[in-house]
Design a protein that fits this description.
Rossmann fold, six-stranded mixed beta sheet, binds zinc ion, 6 helices, about 200 residues, alpha/beta
Length: about 200
């Protein structure tokens, strides 16, 4: 069997897009990653989840539960939990704040890992860690498919990512793609060519 290669899977499933993208921050970028395109294939999602679970084990995590922020974390969190043999619950926003809804709960002292698709600034991860702490559970580690923080996301606990990717961003006035006349697209607004 071939070695697990997250980067190759991202390319092959069209999750790593090349072009000229308008990000939600207003900046422009030549690449965009849409993990949902990777995870749309259950057999791929299962492999990625198993690899991430192994990466979490390697940093010493042996959790009782996986906690994943919706929507991006749900599929990968579920697959990590499958491999670890734990349950998976997800947080979602309730009047703007991350919360466990739907009757989900954590037991006091339970060991949890937080699983995301992508960590960029670590904002939603920290909010999810705060939910874990509110229940009196212990957060053992954070796992993500992709670390886009450039090593800058200081989460305060061990962090395992299957791949790190530093994607350049440009202010519109300094953007070489704008200068080259490439049409600007907003991710999700049309079908992209993938590379
Ligand atoms: Zn541009």
């Amino acid at each position: 069997m071939e070695a697990f290669d997250a980067h190759r899977l991202l390319r092959e499933t069209g999750a790593l897009l090349s072009g000229h993208f308008l990000l939600s921050s207003g900046l422009h970028s030549p690449q965009y990653v849409q993990c949902a395109r990777l995870l749309q294939f259950p057999t791929v999602a299962e492999q990625v989840g198993a690899a991430l679970a192994q990466a979490l084990r390697r940093i010493g995590a042996a959790p009782d539960v996986v906690v994943a922020p919706a929507i991006g974390g749900i599929l990968i969190g579920h697959e990590v939990a499958r491999e670890l043999g734990t349950r998976c619950v997800f947080t979602e926003r309730e009047q703007g704040a991350m919360a466990l809804r739907r009757g989900f709960a954590l037991a006091e002292g339970e060991s949890a890992v937080v699983v995301e698709d992508v960590v960029t600034t670590g904002g939603s991860t920290r909010e999810t860690l705060a939910v874990v702490a509110e229940f009196g559970a212990r957060a053992a580690a954070v796992g993500a498919i992709l670390d886009r923080s450039g090593g800058q996301a200081d989460l305060g606990i061990p962090f395992a990512a299957l791949m790190a990717l530093t994607i350049p961003t440009y202010h519109p006035k300094d953007c070489p793609l704008c200068r080259a006349g490439d049409p600007l697209v907003k991710p999700g607004s049309r079908v992209f060519k993938s590379k």
